[in-house]
Amino acid sequence: MYVAVAGNIGVGKSSLTRLLSERYRLEPIYEAVDENPYLPDFYRDMRRWAFHSQMFFLAERLRQHLRQVNPGERVIQDRTVYEDAAIFARALWRDGVLSDRDHDAYLRMYEAIAATLRPPDLLIYLRASVPTLRARIALRGRDYESSIDPTYLGRLNELYDAFADGYALSRVVVLDADALDFVRHERDLRTVFATVERFGLTPPLVRG
């Protein structure tokens, strides 16, 4: 079983990954945000550092896939390599931050090995409005995220919705993160558990 958690910056992917991994005994694989040496520079000067930051995330995500996701029996991943290409790199290219040349080089690298990757058995898409995203970004207190343009988050949301609508590698569960605060409210967490279990996610059988 390979579960993937998708969603915009600050929506709650890491928290949901942790909670689901504990309940359903899945190995959690987290996005290497703090390990990306380009990310603070990227938010200060996107045009200069976009390609470097995207290539780091792509390389790290592919490393995770080959070492942990592909051979793993029960894994859950915080953000997928598909989002890197279809959403973040595309948004930067459409905004003119990534040049045609850099975007093409990025896609060549992505497409060269994407077919070798194990696709998810279930994709959980956390959807939230920009005000909710901004509030949660503020709560986690990463200095370099404080300057993220709300219009950038809005453009990412549009691309995420299009990605989820066209996604065909597995079943998709859409969770409304505006209405569900599964970190602070047990009732909302139970709602999440009930929803994903309708899509086949269950704890492993334990034999005595």
Helix and strand topology:
Elements: E1 2-7, H1 13-24, E2 27-29, H2 39-44, H3 46-69, E3 75-78, H4 81-94, H5 100-114, E4 122-127, H6 130-140, H7 150-166, E5 171-176, H8 186-198
Parallel strand pairs: 1-3, 1-4, 2-3, 4-5
Q: Can you give a write-up of this model?
A:
Helices cover 54% and strands 12% of the residues. The two termini are 22 Å apart. The mean pLDDT is 91. It has one domain: P-loop containing nucleotide triphosphate hydrolases (Rossmann fold), CATH 3.40.50. Strands 2-3-1-4-5 form a five-stranded parallel sheet, with helices on both faces. The chain has eight helices and five strands. By secondary structure, it is α/β, with parallel strands linked by helices.
Tags for this model:
alpha/beta; 208 residues; single chain; globular; five-stranded parallel sheet; 8 helices; Rossmann fold
Distance between the termini: 22 Å
| CATH homology-level superfamily | P-loop containing nucleotide triphosphate hydrolases
- Architecture per CATH nomenclature, i.e. the level-2 architecture: 3-Layer(aba) Sandwich
Number of helices: 8
Question: How many domains make up the coordinates?
Answer: 1
What CATH first level would be assigned?
Answer: Alpha Beta
Shape category: globular
Outline the biggest β-sheet. 5 strands, parallel
Query: Portion of residues in helices?
Result: 40-55%
Low-confidence blocks of residues: none
**Number of DSSP E strands:** 5
* Gyration radius, in Å: 17 Å
- Mean pLDDT value: 91
- CATH topology category name: Rossmann fold
Structural class: alpha/beta
Order of helices and strands: EHEHHEHHEHHEH
